[in-house]
Design goal:
The chain is α+β, with helices and mostly antiparallel strands. Helices cover 25% and strands 24% of the residues. The protein starts with a helix and ends with a helix.
Amino acid sequence: MTTAEKLVYYPQYCFHLSPTINKWCPLRASDIAGLVCRPGFEDASIFFYLNHPIQWVRITGVVVAIDDYYGHRVYTIDDSTGQCIECTLATPTTTTTTTTTTGTVHRRESRESSEGRTANPQTATGAHSMRPKSTGAVNAVPFPADVDVGAVLDIKGTVKLFRGQKQIGIRKATRVLSTNEEVLFWDKIRDFRHDVLSQPWVLKDREVRMWRLQQIESVEPEAKKRRKISRELAEGLSKDPGESKRTSAEMRSIPLKPLIGERAETPYSSRELARNWSISAVANPHREGYQPAAVITVTTSSAIIQIPRPTSDIKLSTNGFVVTSLETNGRESYAPLLTNSIPSPTSLLEPVEPTVTMPSEQTKPTSSASSNIFGAPIAATKPSSVFQEQKDHPVPRLGIAGPGPYGTNKFYANFFLGNQSSPAYVHPYSLAWSRGQGATSSWGMAISHTEADQRVYGEVQPATGAAKYFLNPIGIQSLCLSALELGSKAALTTDTLNSHSANVNLHVDSKAKPLITFPVVQGMGFVTAVYNGGTPVIETGVYFKTVTRSTKGPHPGITKYTMHLEDGKVWHVYGYSAKGDPFDLTVTNNRMAKAGKPFHGIVQVSKDPGSAESIIDAASGAYPVGMVLSGTSSGSKGTYTFTFQKAGLPNVKLLMYALPHHYESFDSVTAKATSTVKLQTTTKGMAKAVIADCWTMTEPNMPASMGFAPWDPVKGPKNTLSDSAIKTITPVALKELSQNVDQQSNQDSMYFSGKALAKFAAICFTANNLLKNPKLAQSGLANLKDAFKRFTTNKQQFPLYYESAWGGIVSSASYKTGNNGADFGNTFYNDHHFHYGYFIYAAAVIGYLDPSWLTKENVDYINTMVRDISNPSASDKFFPVSRNFDWYHGHSWAHGLYETLDGKDQESSSEDAMAAYSVKMWGRTIKDANMEARGNLMLSVIARSLNQYYLYTAQNNVQPENYIGNKVAGILFENKCDHTTYFGSNIEYVQGIHMLPLLPSTKFTRPVDFVKQEWATYFDKGRADKIEGGWKGILYGNLATIDPKAAWEFFTNKDFDPAWLDGGASLTWYQAYSAAFM
């Protein structure tokens, strides 16, 4: 951890206590260049040295260059510290006088160009342009006359950014007339650095709390005066003797809509407003030079409207910040391919007579599943003693209350990771604990929602014309739900951590009971805060334009406010107390509204995308607190249902937002409950509001007939190869099965070990079922079972632990090495479904070929892996429900216990599908009908979601039009898509990571149209042949799904190089897969 990370950055209302904020800070040019801009202060021209806020600076140096631009002049100052700095001075409109060989030409200076600024033009004859002579008023900034290069200046001004470089906006400048003056200034710099800047700025907690309370309480207007003003405005009384009284008719003619929707043009004179506006006398603690805030209250028959007076220097905090680089903590930088050359076998296997009867028929679906395929656990017992129990974990459980196990790869994980202030993406909103930071300096929960026009796009990629990435800004605090009692000692905890929901609590301090509880549920239409005696405070970093209280609430007991913000967005706020507590908000300035006393009840916030007010109103008062998943399976048809647990008004139906893959698969009842209200999500297209307490989605074409053989969505299993293909493939299979499976699987990585085992399992299946050679299959299977025993006895290089702190089986690698990225971060719950999916697949094949292998020990071992990644039931108290697969998003998240600003992510969509396929086939092998049905359903949901969010044809209308040309997402985060990988940006990496491994399920999740378009975009016309290493085999294996003949010719070419095979893939399987579709 760096020193900067340990610093305490105090809220803006404490800045007046700083020794740096209100003085000319004597600095060097290099000091100014090193000042840091923190999120939330970009528009305030406040920078930081350590945690010292600095706005006003002073520098002395020699002028080494002077450049004139339209409207300003730039003086480049060298103070002999090794770095120069530009200082800018505003200049009036000027006329340039240029002497040429033909006479004198007068010209206006050109305006600033789109690049930022344009220098004075040269004359047509090339003569030197003289410095402009002012034709306007003398500049108001004190500045010495006739300054030229070589002059020494003492400059005072503000720090600002131009094209990423620090500049000084000149406020005052004087000449330095002697070396002695310069020396005196150097002494000031030295003393200032020693006395002030050498140590961080420190305040006591009670000082921070005192100024926090004073900030809020000092803006409380007098209730009596407020009522009087409201009455006078309603009656149209004029206090100006020069104005006639207004009639009631004139008062009623005040247009309500403009008052609510725009900055209103009031019918009152300026003198009248001066008398009738309620003026607060507190200086804004968030911005230098803020004028007293004024609020006008207008009362009509249907609403009470509070309108903060706009300030002339208003600077909206609507840009946030973006993270364009990858956050690579816990991520290895090497490719997920075994790159060591595989030794050729020194001798060939001797096929033996099978000791068991090898199955000659394909596997068949297990008999009917239960009425709820999620109803029963796989097991409810403690994991086998073969896994050493570890009661601690390198990642602490920050603020988590209640018993485990805990979801490690869930949307809410940022609330208990790192500093607990990175966003949680609940879709369509994002939530973040403000923690005294950002534009509001609030200690409450910041709410943000970004629109499509706020996205930031990466550079255009030449090959496709598509943007390299798209991402959404972070840190925009549209509204913050807080409480007067929260301050610098506030603490955040979480409890009731379930697969799709959690409670997030804010406390006055770590010992206090929760003051506010936020039940967060994926898709929630309202952000709901349950106040337990806290005094509500609503803050905004975007500024209030109007705050309107409806005189009649949407339901009995509910108070409604509509908040129009300065960015043009509209938010509805509702308050309800079962105890009857009033929810009265007073707007104290354009950044804050607060209640007058403690509140016991709920406060709900919902963004109005337009024409949605009546629908949002009707759903207010009820809120979700959890979700229960259930499902059915019958043949090829499956359903899954979200039953939302709710609180609040029992007769009000919930408003929840559905993603595109949801509403595309709604049953008829849920489809009827879908409204026309839509909100943009960060990476999942437009969400639709559904007014219902439960949803049911249907998957009518589950791959129930899919087994271990190549499979087509239309034609089904392809179990038969031609005699000529068998003749070609059999010697290849013999050679590959003669390789040393024990050596290849004995890795220091569960990922690479699993891939090796899966490779040999596929060869064994191919030999037995497709090549019709049970003797060869039996010989290979015997070696495979011996190699697998190393893992079922947990004697691999880094054995697995069952760690009970979070609840899961993890590699011991990070415990033993201290490397948090060991084995792709397995110890920290990265990629478990990838790692264990390969083992589950290999075991499914072994158990199918030799049912005697399915001993209790072996079944328990693999079932433990399934429980870790895909536990269906909360009745299993040793593993969280559905660690990886997110039933709301329709795919898995690979990212474990690492805090990230852009939320969870997943790179390999094809390995996600592999994990679901493996669970399906293991369920079939052990005759667990519910497990097989869940695998079928997961595969179907994955296929639907991947083709909207991950894999893009030209017809994709979910992701941005200027991004789908990439054809794949690259890495899909909750908040962005980046067309790259963690191990490099080669196009074969980025596209190929969504191809491997080639499985029977590949044609189901990667449709023909998509594969054709992707191949034409990147790999046709010989481009694939230029790829080196195992990626070439991956590309041609993918080609087999659309052009099996071309793939067959590649894989059977006499010049085929084994280096073109990924260490987890076999030539046997590639040839057999290609031949099956010829």
